[in-house]
Structures are given as C-alpha cells and as structure tokens.
Design brief:
Layout (H helix, E strand, L loop, with lengths): L1 E8 L17 H9 L4 E3 L5 H11 L5 E3 L4 E5 L11 E3 L2 E5 L4 H11 L7 E3 L5 H8 L3 H8 L5 E5 L3 H13 L3 E5 L2 E5 L4 H15 L3 E9 L5 H6 L2 E6 L14 E7 H12 L5
Parallel strand pairs: 1-2, 1-11, 11-12, 12-13
Antiparallel strand pairs: 3-4, 4-6, 5-6, 7-8, 8-10, 9-10
Bound molecules: magnesium ion.
Length: 274
C-alpha cells in the first residue's frame, strides 16, 4: 500500500505568526509540500469568509476545516467522487458536523430573559462594537462575524451568572468554548472529529493508499486534533505552554515559535529539501 501524508494545521500562532500573522518563514516548506503533492489542510476556528481570503494569501487550494471542526469544505476534484454526506455549497463539497447558527441563536434568545443585560452576542452587535471587542479592522470583523455554525457571546455579567448560563445551555445540547473574552456557543464538534472524518473519507476513496495524518497546533482548541492525528506536532507559542495531550507517542514539540517551528518540524519529519 502506498502512503499519503495529509498535513492538518491550525492557523493563528501555528502557520501564521502570533504577532504579525505572516506565514513567510513557512513558505519554502509549503512549496516543498506542494511539489510532493502533500495537501496542507487548515483546521481553524476561523470562518469560511476569513479562510477564503487567507487561503489565497497563503496559496492553499485543498480542503479546509472552519469554525473549530464545524464543517469541512472540499474543492471539486480533490476526491474523484462526491465525498460522503456532503452538500454542494459555495463551490465546495461541505460536510457539516454542527447545527446551523440559527439553532444556537434560538437557544440564546430563550435564555435572555433569565440573564437580563448579562451578555451580548455577535448578531446583536454592530461591526464597530465587534471591532472594539476583538481589535479587528472593520473588513476583518465582517468576515469573522459571518459565522454559520455558532455564536460568540460577550459576557457582561458576573462570573456566577456565567457559570449558570453555561450549565443551562449545555443542558440544551450546546457545547460552549471559552476563548479570550468570548464564549463560543456551538455544537458537539471539534477539530479532531473533522480530521478523522477526512482521513476516513480519503481511505474510502483511495483504497490503494494509506493516509497518515500529521497535525500541527499551538493552543487548547488544538488538543482534539493533536490527539486524533497519527503524528502530533505542538508548535511553541509566545503566549502559552504546549497544550497537554492524552498521548505521548509520536508527539513532537517545535523549538522555534509559529511558522518557523512549523517549517522546521515538517522539514525533519517528512525529509523536505528546503
Ligand atoms: Mg493557534
């Protein structure tokens, strides 16, 4: 059986520099992977709109996973046949793992009367308010705000109220994720489940190949992806320690931070000539 590597990567702090958002130090490795026909698959908390811009900047043409594992977008032609359980949306085959945003918004609306003035959320905020809360520029904020599978909540009330809110929304079937100033309300999906699905689909479509997944990430929301991959690479971060994993085998830690660590790790693991 032939071996096919699939590289799954977080974006911010991993392929993109934590401070400058540049991928430059990884450019030579990206070129080498393209020559070897090894797909680099972004696996990110970002939205489809954000990834549309970023993929062009970085020069990636393959599948990508958005909103923390909520959906995989697969360009036509990546597989020879239609991927299982996908729909044709925005020019891609899309496999969805979460309910749509409208579902989560209806749960949030039902809880509003129990938590008066304790929170606001993206769809209630103006672009100016989102810019102020996130530090994004207006164009970036628009792309970040166009979420399809979840809703970021900005908590204004007490920690005690927040704890009660989380308990209630979990009982309603949501999975809240605490990230920075926001509480992300979405479904029971993560970056690991999306990775597993794509590898299984690859093995189903190409039975002559055995897919080997390599995952690279720097943060807490990468843990499920790093635990699910055949090979895990933890990228050094200037803002946090290496995320703790359940596994110990086939785990590598980069020495350099961000895209330089990304490049160095893949150069060694995959014997790239840079
Ligand atoms: Mg990150």
């Amino acid at each position: 059986m032939k071996q096919q590597f699939l590289v799954f990567t977080d974006m911010d702090g991993t392929l993109l520099d934590h401070h400058t958002y540049s991928h430059r130090p990884a450019q030579a490795a990206l070129n080498a992977l393209k020559t070897l026909k090894i797909p680099v698959i972004p696996n990110t908390s970002k939205t489809f709109d954000e990834m549309k811009v970023l993929r062009e900047q970085v020069g990636l043409e393959g599948p990508f996973i958005v909103e923390n594992g909520a959906a995989i977008h697969i360009p036509h032609g990546f597989f020879s046949r239609k991927p299982a359980n996908t729909q044709w949306i925005n020019n891609h085959w899309v496999r969805q793992f979460s309910s749509r945003r409208s579902h989560w918004l209806s749960l949030i609306t039902r809880l509003k009367k129990d938590f008066p003035n304790a929170f606001t959320h993206f769809s209630n905020m103006t672009i100016e308010e989102i810019c102020e809360a996130t530090g994004l520029e207006p164009q970036e904020a628009k792309r970040a705000a166009n979420r399809h599978y979840g809703e970021p909540i900005l908590w204004l009330g007490t920690e005690h109220q927040k704890k009660n809110f989380i308990e209630m929304i979990v009982a309603m079937g949501a999975k809240p994720l605490i990230g920075g100033r926001f509480l992300h309300i979405s479904g029971e999906c993560d970056k690991g489940g999306a990775l597993r699905w794509l590898c299984n689909e690859f093995n189903r479509q190409y039975p002559d190949y055995q897919c080997t997944s390599v995952a690279l990430g720097d943060g807490q929301n990468d843990i499920a992806m790093l635990d699910a991959a055949d090979i895990a690479v933890r990228i050094k971060s200037p803002s946090n320690d290496f995320p703790p994993l359940k596994r110990t085998e086939h785990v590598y830690d980069s020495v350099a931070e961000g895209p330089q660590g990304w490049s160095d790790s893949l150069e060694q693991l995959l014997n790239l000539t840079l």
